[in-house]
Q: What sequence folds into this?
């Protein structure tokens, strides 16, 4: 008869695995300002979809207009072209609807991504970092999540061990900064 002491143990937990998948996906992004990733997981721990921020299919990554940073001119702003990781993860899902699923995101979802998360039926959001300089946008997303019954939690708050592991992985992959004062856009 086996005891818990003799039972094999995984090297990482579920939260580390799913945020790790999101971090690895983010390494595929060509957006030099913010490499973000997301993974969507069913209640029974199956990965349903993965995405990262990037251009829509068919758009040439070599075209400099797509990567311009002039937010005063929508034509010359990368924000007009880049599809967010959360949206790509939803669009890349192997099953729909995504009722009761959890999405792991490397960055707190913007209001547009919050809308897609809600509409897809995802019930839980776990994020790795939050852009403090986007406080108003974050509040808008939180308002929609609360009204829709979507639970949104910082990995750091509910699982500090998984947060530390994920932060270390992000550092090892040389991804976006994890400090509280990050200024990426």
A:
């Amino acid at each position: 008869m086996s005891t818990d002491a003799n039972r094999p143990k995984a090297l990482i937990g579920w939260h580390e695995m799913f945020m790790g998948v999101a971090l690895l996906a983010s390494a595929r992004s060509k957006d030099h300002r913010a490499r973000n990733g997301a993974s969507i997981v069913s209640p029974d721990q199956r990965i349903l979809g993965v995405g990262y921020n990037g251009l829509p299919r068919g758009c040439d990554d070599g075209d400099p207009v797509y990567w311009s940073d002039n937010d005063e001119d929508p034509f010359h702003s990368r924000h007009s072209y880049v599809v967010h990781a959360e949206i790509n993860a939803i669009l890349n899902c192997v099953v729909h609807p995504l009722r009761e699923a959890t999405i792991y995101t490397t960055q707190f979802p913007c209001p547009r991504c919050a809308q897609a998360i809600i509409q897809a039926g995802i019930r839980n959001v776990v994020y790795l970092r939050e852009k403090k300089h986007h406080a108003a946008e974050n509040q808008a997303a939180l308002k929609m999540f609360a009204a829709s019954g979507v639970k949104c939690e910082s990995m750091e708050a509910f699982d500090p061990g998984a947060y530390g592991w994920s932060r270390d992985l992000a550092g090892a992959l040389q991804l976006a900064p994890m400090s509280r004062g990050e200024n990426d856009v």
